[in-house]
Specification:
alpha+beta, three-stranded antiparallel sheet, two-stranded antiparallel ribbon, 2 helices, elongated
Length: 128
């Protein structure tokens, strides 16, 4: 089956054909994106792309892998920030909570650094 990756999440999207006009389109249900190809030139280009898609699968997989890594880092950063907020105001913290807060902030900084590094790696990979 002919597939393309979603531009937002890199999930594999299967080519569909409209019942009314017989034209190709793609839908990513989780993201809510829809990609329609309506003109002959676009349909021809899509068919050419799909013929060559096997060659392009490796770059798509690499991109998807990097995207998932970045999403995981963002999720972890959000979790650390939520834990910092749960500790409450600085005025009411004992030494134990202050040490936990400091460790969480260090963890957040490390995660942000990793995220920046992933972004640089992805930019370099794309730019060449």
């Amino acid at each position: 089956m002919s597939c393309l990756p979603c531009i937002l999440c890199a999930r594999k999207l299967e080519k569909r054909i409209s019942k009314k006009n017989g034209k190709p389109y793609f839908v990513c249900d989780p993201c809510g994106t829809q990609f329609f190809i309506r003109r002959k030139q676009g349909i021809d280009r899509l068919e050419q792309l799909l013929k060559n898609i096997e060659k392009a699968q490796i770059p798509f997989r690499v991109h998807a892998h990097h995207l998932y890594e970045i999403q995981a880092l963002i999720k972890e950063i959000n979790g650390v920030e939520a834990e910092i907020e749960k500790l409450g105001a600085l005025l009411f913290m004992n030494d134990h909570k202050l040490r936990i807060r400091k460790a969480l902030k260090t963890q957040r900084e490390n995660l942000l650094f990793q995220l920046e590094q992933k972004g640089k790696e992805e930019r370099e990979r794309i730019v060449g």
